[in-house]
Structures are given as structure tokens and as C-alpha cells.
Design goal:
71% helix; mainly alpha; 0% strand
């Protein structure tokens, strides 16, 4: 799909508008007409660039990523995690977590959204996390046969779901740092 006609700045503007609309109305009520009106574009342009609402939403989420974890290599797994957390903002993290909870719910009823989120957001995120964990294995910090390696994404998603439900508080850097120290790193033998 030819998407090169938009400047990176314009693409960022569009993605920000999509995320704002998602936060305002939710996935089900989000329409390409509303995105077109908000971004002063034509609906035809949106479909030509992104093909579908699920793809536009997934790419907007991907484009909103504040940090590329593959660029972080401090020499230790704990250092990499601290560097990743240092590049996040608590307010943005809370907004993004709420958005993802809503989209996870919508994805259950929409196979096309589920596929787009998996292909364009979840799989790249898991690959990046695998890179970080793979470096820890190569450095000898984590045993290559540690069964917890495959469960780190599950642990992290669990933290994002459980914190608001159990503690009635948002996930923030302090919580994630404590969670990594108490749960994730010990399970990896670090």
C-alpha cells in the first residue's frame, strides 16, 4: 500500500488525531468520516493510505510509541529496563493503558482489528522485547532455557490489567519498576 505521499509530520498529526478521537469516543464509535473531518482530509485519502479503520488505528498506536527498545542497550537487563522506563511519561502511560484496555475489548468482537493490532503493534513489541531479553541471555544474565522468558509479555500485560483493578490506581513508572524488581527479574533469575 503506497503510504509515502504524507510527510512524517502530517502522518504524526493524523495519528495524534486518531488517538484523540479514540480516547473521546472509543473504537466502535470512531468513523473514518470523523477522522477525515478532524484531520481536514478526505475519507478516500484515509482509505488509500491505510486501507481500513483497524489498520489506521493500529498504525496510529504504533506511531505513538515513545521509545524504540531495540535502541536501548545499557549492558544489563536491569539497566535496559530502567532506561526504557525513564523514557516513558506516567500520564501518557495511563492514557495509553486505558486506550489499550478499550481496544482489547473491541478486538474480541472485531477479528480485523485483532489481526491489525497483532500484526502492527503486538508482534513488533514482542520482537523488540525478545531482542532485549536475547541480549540478556547472550550476556549470561538469563539462562537460555529459563521458561519465564516466554512469559515476560504475559507478566507485563497482567501488571497493566491487574493494577487498576486491584489497587484502583494507574500503572506508573514506580509501580512498573517495583514490579520488574519483585516479579519479572527474579523469575528470570536476575
Amino acid at each position: 500500500m503506497a503510504r509515502s505521499r504524507l510527510t512524517p509530520e502530517r502522518e504524526s498529526e493524523l495519528y495524534a488525531a486518531v488517538l484523540d478521537l479514540l480516547r473521546e469516543v472509543g473504537y466502535d464509535a470512531l468513523t473514518m468520516d470523523a477522522v477525515a473531518a478532524r484531520t481536514h482530509s478526505s475519507k478516500a485519502t484515509l482509505y488509500r493510505q491505510w486501507g481500513s479503520k483497524p489498520e489506521l488505528v493500529a498504525r496510529a498506536l504504533r506511531g505513538n510509541k515513545p521509545v524504540d527498545v531495540t535502541e536501548i542497550d545499557t549492558g544489563s537487563l536491569r539497566g535496559d529496563i530502567e532506561a526504557m522506563l525513564a523514557q516513558t511519561d506516567d500520564c501518557q502511560m495511563d492514557q495509553d493503558a486505558a486506550l489499550m484496555r478499550g481496544l482489547a475489548h473491541a478486538a474480541h468482537a472485531n477479528p480485523e482489528l485483532h489481526r491489525a493490532l497483532r500484526e502492527l503493534l503486538i508482534e513488533p513489541e514482542m520482537n523488540s522485547l525478545d531482542d532485549v531479553l536475547g541480549r540478556a541471555v547472550r550476556r549470561g544474565e538469563v539462562d537460555a532455557d529459563n521458561p519465564a522468558l516466554k512469559l515476560v509479555p504475559h507478566m507485563l500485560i497482567g501488571a497493566f490489567i491487574a493494577r487498576p483493578m486491584i489497587d484502583d490506581q494507574p500503572v506508573d513508572r514506580a509501580f512498573l519498576s517495583a514490579y520488574f524488581d519483585a516479579v519479572v527479574l527474579p523469575s528470570l533469575g536476575v
